[in-house]
Amino acid sequence: MKTIKQTHFRTDGKTIKKITEYALQTRNKTKTTWFRYDGKTIYSIYEYNSQTGNQIKDTFFQLDGKTIHFID
Fold this sequence. Notes:
Blueprint: E1 3-9, E2 16-23, E3 29-35, E4 42-48, E5 55-61, E6 68-71
Antiparallel strand pairs: 1-2, 2-3, 3-4, 4-5, 5-6
Protein name: DUF2963 domain-containing protein
Organism: Rapeseed phyllody phytoplasma
InterPro entries: DUF2963
């Protein structure tokens, strides 16, 4: 599946706040990755059904950005 990525920055214009991915064919959101204030460490990932756009999974990470804290 091909996607389009949209990067959102914090008010400083440099630090990444989140990256949202969309399905190329449907234009529905497929994934949003949120970052901590450093713009590098992953805070959470929200996944969506590419056909419906409905949220299907939330994954939250510990402070290291790698270890899963919990999945909802």
